[in-house]
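Reading a protein record of the kind used here takes only a little practice. The record below shows the convention in full:
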Amino acid sequence: MLSLYTVVAFLSIFSLLHAFTSIRLSRLNRITLSIWSSIIMLVFGVYNVINTYQNQFLENSSKLNDIIYIGVQFFLLGISSIYIYQNVL
Protein backbone atom coordinates (compact mmCIF):
# COMPACT_ATOMS: atom_id res chain seq x y z
CA MET A 1 0.00 0.00 0.00
CA LEU A 2 2.90 2.30 0.76
CA SER A 3 4.32 1.80 -2.73
CA LEU A 4 0.96 2.69 -4.27
CA TYR A 5 0.82 5.88 -2.20
CA THR A 6 4.36 6.72 -3.26
CA VAL A 7 3.57 6.28 -6.96
CA VAL A 8 0.38 8.36 -6.65
CA ALA A 9 2.23 11.11 -4.78
CA PHE A 10 5.06 11.15 -7.33
CA LEU A 11 2.70 11.31 -10.32
CA SER A 12 0.59 14.00 -8.65
CA ILE A 13 3.65 16.15 -7.98
CA PHE A 14 4.81 15.48 -11.55
CA SER A 15 1.44 16.68 -12.86
CA LEU A 16 1.40 19.77 -10.69
CA LEU A 17 4.96 20.59 -11.68
CA HIS A 18 4.07 20.52 -15.37
CA ALA A 19 0.80 22.37 -14.81
CA PHE A 20 2.29 25.35 -12.98
CA THR A 21 5.71 25.70 -14.61
CA SER A 22 6.88 26.28 -18.15
CA ILE A 23 8.91 23.09 -18.40
CA ARG A 24 9.04 21.82 -21.97
CA LEU A 25 6.98 18.67 -22.51
CA SER A 26 8.78 15.77 -24.12
CA ARG A 27 7.00 12.84 -25.72
CA LEU A 28 7.63 10.71 -22.64
CA ASN A 29 6.22 13.39 -20.34
CA ARG A 30 3.12 13.76 -22.52
CA ILE A 31 2.42 10.03 -22.60
CA THR A 32 3.01 9.78 -18.84
CA LEU A 33 0.59 12.62 -18.13
CA SER A 34 -1.95 11.16 -20.55
CA ILE A 35 -1.83 7.71 -18.98
CA TRP A 36 -1.99 9.19 -15.48
CA SER A 37 -5.03 11.33 -16.32
CA SER A 38 -6.72 8.31 -17.93
CA ILE A 39 -6.16 6.26 -14.79
CA ILE A 40 -7.60 9.03 -12.62
CA MET A 41 -10.63 9.40 -14.90
CA LEU A 42 -11.13 5.63 -14.86
CA VAL A 43 -11.12 5.65 -11.06
CA PHE A 44 -13.60 8.54 -11.01
CA GLY A 45 -15.75 6.76 -13.60
CA VAL A 46 -15.89 3.52 -11.62
CA TYR A 47 -16.68 5.48 -8.47
CA ASN A 48 -19.49 7.32 -10.26
CA VAL A 49 -20.92 4.08 -11.69
CA ILE A 50 -20.99 2.48 -8.26
CA ASN A 51 -22.59 5.52 -6.61
CA THR A 52 -25.06 6.04 -9.43
CA TYR A 53 -26.42 2.50 -9.29
CA GLN A 54 -26.52 2.41 -5.48
CA ASN A 55 -28.80 5.46 -5.33
CA GLN A 56 -32.51 5.36 -5.82
CA PHE A 57 -33.77 6.05 -9.30
CA LEU A 58 -34.44 9.58 -10.48
CA GLU A 59 -38.14 8.86 -10.98
CA ASN A 60 -38.54 7.77 -7.34
CA SER A 61 -36.86 10.87 -5.91
CA SER A 62 -39.12 13.41 -4.29
CA LYS A 63 -36.63 16.01 -3.08
CA LEU A 64 -35.00 18.51 -5.41
CA ASN A 65 -31.61 17.98 -3.73
CA ASP A 66 -31.72 14.25 -4.49
CA ILE A 67 -32.65 14.90 -8.12
CA ILE A 68 -29.77 17.39 -8.53
CA TYR A 69 -27.32 15.01 -6.85
CA ILE A 70 -28.29 12.09 -9.11
CA GLY A 71 -28.16 14.34 -12.17
CA VAL A 72 -24.66 15.53 -11.29
CA GLN A 73 -23.53 11.92 -10.84
CA PHE A 74 -24.78 10.99 -14.32
CA PHE A 75 -23.16 14.12 -15.76
CA LEU A 76 -19.77 13.30 -14.17
CA LEU A 77 -20.06 9.71 -15.38
CA GLY A 78 -20.61 10.94 -18.93
CA ILE A 79 -17.75 13.42 -18.75
CA SER A 80 -15.32 10.81 -17.45
CA SER A 81 -16.44 8.36 -20.18
CA ILE A 82 -15.90 10.94 -22.92
CA TYR A 83 -12.50 11.88 -21.48
CA ILE A 84 -11.35 8.25 -21.40
CA TYR A 85 -12.62 7.71 -24.96
CA GLN A 86 -10.74 10.80 -26.14
CA ASN A 87 -7.51 9.59 -24.52
CA VAL A 88 -7.87 6.16 -26.11
CA LEU A 89 -8.13 7.77 -29.54
Notes: The first helix runs from residue 2 to 20. The two ends are 32 Å apart (CA to CA). Helices lie at 2-20, 27-54, 64-88.
